[in-house]
Design goal:
Blueprint (H helix, E strand, L loop, with lengths): L2 E3 L2 H13 L4 E6 L5 H13 L2 E6 L19 H10 L4 E3 L3 H4 L18 H4 L3 H16 L3 E5 L3 H13 L5 E5 L19 H6 L1 H16 L4 H15 L3 E9 L14 E10 L2 E10 L1
Parallel strand pairs: 1-4, 2-3, 2-5, 3-4, 5-6
Antiparallel strand pairs: 7-8, 8-9
Helix pairs in contact: 6-7, 9-10
The chain binds adenosine monophosphate.
């Protein structure tokens, strides 16, 4: 069983001692309710570091006022078991009041990148993400941190944060882990009804279609987006929030793909109150 630490000072002291003992620390930041996607990140941290810290923190700062913070699924005892089975040494699970005590007023803004795609639909989301990741790095003092490609824009934002603030942390990115029918694993899949769950496989089918069409030579984003819309709307009750074809490095939306080598096709679709995101990278 991994050790559970809830206190920030205790976590910082322990991380400091590990560093003094010349141990490499790998951290896996999560919001808990762990699934196989998270466990793949933890196994990667296990492979690459001496001490693996999994953080479990549902970060209020990255949820909008009308979003699902209160009902976000939580199960810390189960998370501790699963995190341990994948090789976690320490689960760090602080409460919100210690991360954001009264009078808290410091935030990290990764400008420009935070106002497109997910950031456009979820104002303030990436400010919350960048702030908590900076704090978790300062608390767990990692040599490396593992994130999932499932949250493609988050990866770009955190890479930029690390570069711009000279954070001394190596980033390791793990490909998206999917269910058998292609649906990207997500803690939010637990919200779906059986019918929505079946229909949700249309998201990955639409992404695979985009991948195939781009490889075949299609270069007009509107055509790709139109065909993806037909797949999702024709095969599910999902309501499309956005479908985007963008440059994978800058996240700039592209009317035409010519001259770009890394394409990020991403989407957000609502099934009832449940908002799912997914993406694929296409290298040209
Ligand atoms: P979350 O708990 O949703 O904030 O996710 C914590 C970390 O796990 C993030 O780096 C996510 O990108 C990653 N993650 C979530 N779902 C998946 C998945 N299906 N495959 C790979 N990584 C994932």
């Amino acid at each position: 069983m991994p050790q559970l630490i809830e206190n920030i000072n205790e976590m910082q002291d322990l991380a400091g001692r590990e560093r003094q003992d010349a141990k490499t620390i790998g951290v896996v930041p999560t919001m808990g309710f762990l699934h196989e996607g998270h466990l793949k990140l933890i196994r990667e941290a296990r492979r690459l570091s001496d001490t693996v810290i999994t953080t479990v923190f549902v970060n209020p700062a990255q949820f909008g006022p009308a979003e699902d913070f209160d009902r976000y699924p939580r199960n810390l005892p189960r998370d501790i078991d699963l995190a341990g089975s994948a090789g976690t040494d320490i689960v760090f699970a602080p409460d919100a009041a210690s991360i954001y005590p009264p009078g808290y007023c410091t935030y990290v803004d990764v400008t420009q990148l935070d106002s497109v795609l997910e950031g456009k639909s979820r104002p303030g989301h990436f400010r919350g993400v960048a702030t908590v990741v900076t704090k978790l790095f300062n608390i767990t003092k990692p040599h490396l941190a593992v994130f999932g490609q499932k949250d493609a824009q988050q990866v770009v934002v955190i890479k930029t944060l690390v570069r711009d603030l000279n954070l001394d942390v190596e980033l390791v990115i793990v490909p998206t882990v999917r269910e058998k029918d292609g649906l990207a694993m997500s803690s939010r899949n637990a919200y779906l009804t059986a019918e929505q769950r079946r229909e949700a496989s249309a998201l990955y089918r639409s992404l695979q279609h985009a991948d195939r069409r781009i490889r075949e030579g299609e270069r007009q984003a509107t055509r790709i987006i139109g065909e993806m819309t037909d797949i999702i709307s024709g095969q599910s009750s999902g309501v499309i929030d956005y479908i985007s074809v963008a440059d994978g490095a800058t996240l700039e939306e592209l009317p035409a793909l010519n001259g770009h080598s890394e394409i990020l096709v991403s989407l957000a679709v609502r099934f009832g109150n449940t908002r799912l995101i997914d993406n694929i990278h296409v290298s040209l």
